[in-house]
């Protein structure tokens, strides 16, 4: 049985890793923050693979990031940069 949640997580992770390889110095913190969060989301998510799609991963991942911002006292500028990089990664992972 396919697992669209896990497949999307893998695609996003690969996209972020490629982005990290080509990133400007100012993007490395944000990308380095985002990449390991994927494994944590997968570990913590409870779902039935038959009842999810790729959009469910995207929504869960973004909600997870938003919750970590507060816990990590993330600055507004860092949050905005992560949001922009997330939008780019999500779009590129669709290709």
Architecture overview:
The longest helix is centred in the first third of the chain and has 18 residues, at 4-21. The protein is globular and about 40 Å long. The chain is 75% helix and 0% strand. By secondary structure, it is an all-alpha fold. The two termini are 23 Å apart. The protein has one domain (4-93). The mean pLDDT is 96. It comes from Salinicola socius. This is YfcL family protein. Pfam families: YfcL (PF08891).
Low-confidence stretches: none
Inertia-based shape = globular
Distance between the termini: 23 Å
User: How many H/I helices?
Assistant: 4
The major sheet is characterized as: none
Helix content: over 70%
Number of domains: 1
Total strands:
0
Arithmetic mean of pLDDT: 96
The radius of gyration is 13 Å
- Portion in strands: under 5%
Q: Which sequence of SSEs, written as H and E, runs from N to C? A: HHHH
Q: Kindly name the structural category.
A: mainly alpha
Protein name: YfcL family protein
Pfam families: YfcL (PF08891)
Organism: Salinicola socius
InterPro entries: UPF_YfcL
